[in-house]
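CO-FOLDING WORKSHEET

Operator: S.A.
Ligand of interest: adenosine-5'-triphosphate
Run index: 707
Mode: holo prediction, single chain
Checklist:
[x] sequence pasted
[x] SMILES validated
[ ] output reviewed
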Amino acid sequence: MTSSVQSGTAQPLPKTKTKAKKRYLKAKKDRRKNRKVATAHGSSAHAGANDRPKSDVEEEDVEVRSNSEPDTDIEQVVNGSRDEIKEETRPKKRRKLEQSGSQVTEEQKEPFVNNNSSRSTSPPKRISPAPQATLPSFPLPKRPDAPSSATLAFQGLDKALVEAEIIEPGKVLPLGEGDIDHDTALSEKTRRRLKDLGITELFAVQTAVVPYLLSNPRQQSLYLPYDPPRDLCVSAPTGSGKTLAYVLPIVEILSLRTVTRLRALVVLPTRDLVVQVRETFEAISKGRGLKIGTATGQHSFAHEQAQLIADYSPSLQGGSSKVDILICTPGRLMDHLNGTPNFSLQHLRFLVIDEADRLLAQSFQDWLAQVLQATQPPTATKSIPQHEQQPSMPHPDGVAPSYMHLLHGIPTVRTDLDEPKEPSCQKLLFSATLTRDPSKIAALNLRDPKYFVVQKAANVPTTKEDGVLDLVMEKFTMPATLSEHMIVCESSEKPLMLFYLIYTHGISNALVFTKSAESTTRLVRLFEFFETFWNSQNGTSSQRKSLSLKAYSSDLSAGDRRVILEKFKAQEINVLVCSDLISRGIDISHVSHVVSYDAPVDIRKYVHRVGRTARAGRAGDAWTLVEAQEARYFKSMMKAADHLQSVKRMRVSESDLSPLLPFYEASLKRLGELYSRDRLERKFRITWFSSVILCGFVDKSCNANRI
Ligand SMILES: Nc1ncnc2c1ncn2[C@@H]1O[C@H](COP(=O)(O)OP(=O)(O)OP(=O)(O)O)[C@@H](O)[C@H]1O
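OUTPUT RECEIVED:
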């Protein structure tokens, strides 16, 4: 211990200068001296400048000074203060290092450095100017900004789609009484008929399509060879009334016809839809004398031919038809185009492709190309042998204007005023998920198409392009009255979740979608066992009747399917467990719930499945059971469609499920027994069959040996 500590008084330490400090002070002193010398030298040089010519060296000298030292006081002050601030903010250690280093740099910076002590007498040594800190650099090439997703989405799109007309889903047009019509362009007869059917207003899609097709009287003609009509593409949500949007104008225009010709062809993807659309046509055209036919393959080909064709004479150029409107599936249509004499599409005024995106995806026999070709007149006239040519028409034949050049034996005087005659067929495309694929649209060979897009209010955009963009980006509009939920659970929990939804929510009209026909059958079996156990415990009452359920899939024959669907429509069946066979177009007003037991794999499928409920402004619920490992994919699919926020997640706890657990376990046990019995029976049958074959073989070989 030191004495100072002992005495308790702290002696100030003697101020000793470190070597570095000394060096620093010396350098500082030198710098000051140098500066003085330099100033004296500079002023003498400057004084003599007027007397003698300026040398290169002198010019350089001035330049060097201006580079190395600040000329003005302001600059010195600014530099000084900046240095001080820097000093304070820098860490202590670094400051020290920099101070020692700064001696060198300061020296280097000085224009005149005197290394020996006789600095004051000898002129200072001149050094070359310090190079500039950085070389002049050119700006680097800049990448152009990436085009926005909107710009990319519009690339390659049909111009007509970009110019689509956006319609608000809430728009309606009331049907006027008598002579008063509120811009619907419908005749009084049709309005009266609609009111008889309980329809008092036109829905949004109808307010756009019906007046568009009817308001121009010239467009109501059956033939428009010189002014062919524009084609129409319509995208509107499920259950928004697209069927009536085309049925009404077709019935109005065709009611003007005198002779029956095949003038409207409606193509649909399934037989059930054909039946449904036929019912709508029949309801609207009642009392208008129009003949409506269907071709689905439900009846024999000969039977259908007899229903469609009136005259099989080979000499007819204008075709023959017993119907004005034909509703069909593409497969059967091809059969008639290729195999029915006098089945002609030359008089076609309307070609409707409903569920267009689904039908365009079907390349069945290249049906679209063949149908479009059949609506066009052949380019080369068929040469008919002299003996077959008729001096006059033997039959009351009628040839469409665009087919007139095919007639033989009729003198025609061609004039300069003759214009080419176009077919009058107008294509009408409808879907809730209209295709945006430019190649598919190009295949349709549309004539100056007009697009109508019914877009939900929340999405009603500030610009029209935004609305079109939603369609292009597959952000489809859902019915406003639909509420959507998803339940994330393990795969093994799914049946129990389904029973929970059906039994605790008291559902009595539901469609349950599965991924395959096989899973449909298995689920229905389990469901039936559960229903039996549940009823045996809880009983049935007037409030809760026993549930009737059935499977509906491609495993059943067409006849069976039709019967089941009729029963479901009549509410004799409460829960229909089905594959995606009826996910599109089917209109059953009382379906209150749709359950996707197996989550759909694409957004279009989802839109059509959930669209079986909440139709025509009614409320509806859609639940999707999502397996835990599928949840991420499902959510990203919904997010891409800008729809995730509309699908609420529903959490079901174990306590919610526990009351159903005993019945579920008993049902599973019964199903297991059933399947193991089935397996045993099958095994037994195979063993028995093979033993019979084996016995026969042994028997034969024994006989052969005896011989
Ligand atoms: N103006 C209207 N007033 C009242 N009900 C209507 C009207 N238009 C259509 N509907 C009813 O709305 C229901 C749905 O119509 P429709 O089947 O045509 O829908 P959609 O748009 O074709 O649906 P999806 O895309 O699922 O095929 C039908 O029951 C139909 O009778």
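REVIEW:
The chain has a mean pLDDT of 80.
Residues 661-706 form the longest helix (46 residues).
[x] output reviewed
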